[in-house]
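Input (structure):
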């Protein structure tokens, strides 16, 4: 939710900035490309954490089953 607010706030700031249309469009494109990379990194981190959690649960289940 926070990320969405940051993206919208940044886009709004660029739209209301006193720049020429072409420059503003380039700035918006650059901004969204940067935010996209941040989101991709965040999703990768979450996937890694989920995979680690799955392994921990799997190992815990194996220990319980062995007893």
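Output (sequence):
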């Amino acid at each position: 939710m926070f990320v969405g607010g940051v993206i919208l706030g940044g886009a709004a700031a660029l739209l209301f900035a006193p720049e020429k249309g072409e420059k503003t469009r380039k700035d918006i494109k650059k901004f969204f490309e940067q935010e996209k990379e941040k989101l991709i990194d965040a999703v990768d981190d979450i996937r890694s954490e989920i995979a680690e959690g799955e392994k921990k649960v799997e190992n815990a289940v194996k220990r319980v089953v062995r007893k």
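Notes: The CA atoms of residues 61 and 67 lie 10 Å apart. The longest helix spans residues 21-66.
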